[in-house]
Amino acid sequence: MIPGVTSRRRFSDLGEQEILALAISSEEDDARIYRLYAERLREDFPGSAKIFDGMAAEEDEHRHRLIELHKKRFGDVIPLIRREHVSGYYARRPVWLIENLGLERMRDEAEAMEREAERFYRKAAARTSDADTRKLLGDLAAAEAGHGKKADDLAETHLDDDTRSAEDRTAKRQFVLTWVQPGLAGLMDGSVSTLAPIFATAFATHDTHTTFLVGLAASVGAGISMGFTEAASDDGELSGRGSPVKRGVASGVMTAIGGLGHALPYLIPDFWTATVIALIVVFIELWAIVWIQNKFMETPFLRATFQVVLGGALVFAAGALIGSG
Q1: Neighbours of 193 (CB within 10 A)
Q2: What is the DSSP letter of 176?
Q3: Among 246, 234, 240, which residue's Cα sits nearest to residue 179?
Q4: Where are the domains of the chain?
Q5: How much is the pLDDT for 239?
Q6: Is the predicted pLDDT of residue 133 greater than 70, yes or no?
Q7: Which of 295, 292, 266 lies closest to 194 in space, CA to CA?
Q8: Alpha-carbon distance 258 to 281, whole Å?
């Protein structure tokens, strides 16, 4: 093979038998994905799991119709051709990614899958000359286009208002436990705990470069420490807090961001300009923490303000006093 030249076939070079084989394997993959969604959701979202079960059954029915047509036209032996064998053909997410999607992302992904399948069948139908094949592919394109209606019908069957509300509450709770709570803890730690070393260094040295290096080291170090601590503290199996990797990433990244926010202004050479900007950033960080607590954690606004602003002010004062001394 010539380096840099792909070995995949172009869609325009496929014959009608290969197009049918590609459609069969694609329907198999889509049904498998929908069943994976269903299994992933069955415990916490049984209504939505039944919807994906129904969509998987629809894909099975499409596959059976395609196989019958292939047997009628070309015999029992179906060529092995899959999406990854065709250049420019739409690809599905790897299993290890899709099984970690949230409920809304699964729904969005399913809608995208149906749109892509519809486009494929319309292009495939335009490339076939056999009347039966063209009709079936056109019918399947219409079926994929109508899967949104099918999903709505299934939702009406399996998701009444109470079930949908319960699933939405469960999804929100899972989002908060997996992403918001660890991220908020990281942002608070990064924003507040780095105030003392950064401003102590700033007032002790009046050297913006040194202050920036201290802030960078404190922020990155705290981010790594918080990330590993969060991931190692709970595997999520019993607590239901979700993937430890996700929680570790949320906590570690937000910790680093919280510290870097008021360390980056010290890239400015002028000490007082950098310090004033850093204080403004601290103010924004603290109010962001208050807003997140109030919106996602349902902490009363005044209580969150008192806790965060008072705590941040005390830590800043300690750092400034130590640095000035």
Answers
A1: 17
A2: I
A3: 246
A4: 9-159, 169-324
A5: 59
A6: yes
A7: 266
A8: 10
Give 86's DSSP letter. E
The continuous run of DSSP H or E covering 87 comes out as strand 86-87
Which of 43-47, 78-82, 229-233 is most confident?
A: 78-82
pLDDT band at residue 205 under the 50/70/90 scheme: very high
| CATH of region 9-159 | 1.20.1260.10
Containing 43, the helix (H) or strand (E) segment is none
Judge contact between 52 and 32, C-beta under 8 A.
no
pTM, to two decimals? 0.56
Nearest in space to 72 (alpha carbons), one of 136, 8, 123, 163: 136
The CA-atom distances, in angstroms, between 61 and each of 30, 39, 79, 155 are 12, 20, 20, 20
Rg for the chain (alpha carbons), in Å?
A: 28
Compute the distance between CA of residue 103 and CA of residue 178 in angstroms, rounded to an integer. 13
For 225-276, write each residue's pLDDT tens digit.
Answer: 988 888 887 776 655 677 788 888 988 999 999 999 999 999 999 999 999 9
What gap in Å lies between CA 70 and CA 79, rounded to an integer?
10
Cα separation of 125 and 141, whole Å?
Answer: 9
Element containing residue 10 per DSSP (H, E): strand 9-10
**Four-CA torsion 84, 88, 94, 97, nearest 10 degrees:** 180
CA distances from 282 to 196, 289, 290 (A): 12, 11, 12
pLDDT of residue 93: 61
Structure tokens at 116: 């892509």
Residue 19 burial class via C-beta count within 10 angstroms: exposed 0-12, middle 13-18, buried 19 and up? buried
